[in-house]
Recover the amino acids of this structure.
């Protein structure tokens, strides 16, 4: 593309060209600058407090008592992990089923209805999901299953719906790029459509499917507004899926409004732990991608 | 053996069809439920009056203005940056050059960061460090970073879809590189770029956590970019979380969903135009 690019001469239009290229270069640097600033500022605020409290104590103490300077986020790590796992347990099989449905089974007409629906599912604001969970799922759990209703279960139900589009979109792409010859070869050998899907198509798409699950996990761990409205937000270790929990994200959004001093730093530290978690998940994805190439 | 296999397959297909039906059902339930419960709240007053008594009474006009204001600020910053970086990467850099990879990786990392982290960053950087306070400006800048990857990626895809002959023909006619980009390449990829911008509007309108930490939650009508504001999504959060008024929460949720529906429809429309234009 650049082969036919001429070096601009020293005339006015040449200077203009160079100036514009410079402007474009600067805008391209914006993303790099942004990611660096985010990492530096969030870590600079959060790390000193983790060092002060002690990494071990911050991560594994279950006492969160900001008034008395006790900062342990074990209950929130447990809360975040519990609702994330609860969401993935049902959203991954359903998401896979949907990806298979859309890429292998559905007629173009049904696809034309389902794909926009999944886009819309992805486009709905998380606060809407939280609100829906608050008025429907929470009372339902309270009335029929017991407990306060605000619970790991409520969070898992709503988060599962929210991560579906992430899983479906990525897994569907992975399934779609499996070469047609694989399918035709398998069918020609007498395999049924399902045998072809389960033994040929899914294994060939497996790394993409794993990427879908990992990114879905990242989405679930980082979700804030939906979770904060429906999980009850208490800083106690959960005993069952009907127990209320507080997520790491919830901790930040609930207390940021009035926190000062060490308390505020501890909220940034909570953000740092969440951030590290997301970085690890993204690293897993890019390692997987490199292996595939 | 074969019969068993058939039965098993039938069962699996049934599960898959049920799954698809479940998803459609869930989406329609959410939308229908909010519509039915919220439609009674919608009135001229609800849309045009400023909330009073924490939102228990009055309307949500300041939250609507806040949402639009924040979105406009974010777009004003992010659209030129996103399009600019996409143009630089696709037109001035070789594909997969070191620099391109670095920018693309940064954008990908940005799109994977949870909104609450953007909120923390926006708070410490824009609100405190740059001294912008809880304001439209802080919120808009934070949103701008969040939507930058979307605009950049969709623009890149749109630019790549422009046939190479368009460029070489224009250059052969003596146009300069920038003339070629601004008169030929950008116009032919415009609908694709517009789709990305519309999708970003959707993201901005729905964003809550990051705005809560950077724009504040003032109920008054924001006038200057330095005023604090509350968006509709933040307003909905407060109404629901603190049980201020469920009736008004339904109304706000309904308006939000309607906005998102319109935005999604427009995005699909412009995407279809783009594919159509490329085909013809």
């Amino acid at each position: 593309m650049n082969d036919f690019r001429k070096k601009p001469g020293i005339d006015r239009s040449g200077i203009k060209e160079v100036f514009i290229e410079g402007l474009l270069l600067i805008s391209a640097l914006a993303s790099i600058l942004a990611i660096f600033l985010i990492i530096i500022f969030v870590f600079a605020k959060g790390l000193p407090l983790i060092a002060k409290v002690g990494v071990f104590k911050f991560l594994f103490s279950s006492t969160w008592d900001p008034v008395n300077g006790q900062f342990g986020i074990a209950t929130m790590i447990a809360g975040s992990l519990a609702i994330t796992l609860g969401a993935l347990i049902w959203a991954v099989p359903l998401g896979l089923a949907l990806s298979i449905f859309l890429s292998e089974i559905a007629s173009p007409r049904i696809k034309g209805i389902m794909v926009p629906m999944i886009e819309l599912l992805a486009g709905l604001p998380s606060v809407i999901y939280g609100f829906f969970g608050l008025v429907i799922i929470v009372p339902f759990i309270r009335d029929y299953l017991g407990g306060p209703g605000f619970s790991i279960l409520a969070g898992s139900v709503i988060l599962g719906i929210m991560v579906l589009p992430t899983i479906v979109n990525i897994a569907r792409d992975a399934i779609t790029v499996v070469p047609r010859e694989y399918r035709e070869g398998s069918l020609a050998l007498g395999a049924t459509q399902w045998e072809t899907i389960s033994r040929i198509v899914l294994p060939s798409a497996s790394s993409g499917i794993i990427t879908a699950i990992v990114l879905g996990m990242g989405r679930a761990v980082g979700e804030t507004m939906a979770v904060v409205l429906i999980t009850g937000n208490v800083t106690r270790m959960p005993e069952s899926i009907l127990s209320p929990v507080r997520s790491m994200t919830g901790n930040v959004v609930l207390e940021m409004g009035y926190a000062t001093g060490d308390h505020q730093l501890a909220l940034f530290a909570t953000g740092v732990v969440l951030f590290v978690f997301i970085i690890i998940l993204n690293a897993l994805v890019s390692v997987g991608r490199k292996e595939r190439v | 053996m074969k019969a068993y296999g058939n039965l098993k397959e039938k069962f699996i297909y049934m599960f898959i069809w049920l799954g698809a039906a479940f998803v459609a059902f869930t989406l329609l339930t959410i939308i229908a439920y909010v519509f039915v419960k919220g439609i009674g709240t919608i009135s001229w007053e609800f849309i045009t009056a400023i909330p009073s008594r924490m939102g228990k009474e009055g309307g949500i006009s300041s939250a609507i203005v806040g949402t639009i204001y924040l979105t406009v600020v974010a777009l004003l910053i992010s659209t030129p940056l996103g399009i600019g970086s996409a143009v630089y990467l696709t037109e001035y850099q070789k594909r997969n050059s070191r620099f391109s990879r670095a920018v693309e990786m940064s954008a990908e990392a940005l799109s994977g960061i949870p909104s609450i982290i953007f909120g923390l960053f926006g708070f410490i950087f824009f609100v405190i460090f740059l001294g912008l306070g809880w304001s439209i400006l802080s919120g808009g800048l934070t949103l701008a970073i969040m939507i930058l990857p979307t605009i950049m990626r969709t623009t890149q895809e749109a630019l790549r879809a422009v046939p190479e002959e368009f460029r070489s023909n224009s250059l052969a006619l003596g146009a300069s590189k920038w003339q070629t980009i601004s008169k030929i390449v950008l116009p032919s990829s415009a609908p694709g770029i517009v789709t990305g911008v519309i999708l970003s509007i959707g993201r901005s309108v729905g964003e809550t956590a990051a705005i809560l930490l950077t724009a504040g939650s003032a109920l008054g009508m924001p006038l200057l970019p330095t005023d604090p504001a509350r968006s509709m999504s933040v307003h909905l959060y407060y109404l629901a979380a603190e049980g201020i008024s469920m009736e008004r929460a339904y109304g706000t949720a309904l308006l939000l969903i309607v906005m998102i529906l319109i935005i999604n429809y427009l995005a699909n429309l412009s995407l279809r135009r783009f594919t159509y234009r490329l085909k013809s």
In short: Chain A touches chain B through 83 residues (CB under 8 Å). The mean pLDDT of chain A is 91. The beta strands of chain A are 64-65, 70-71.
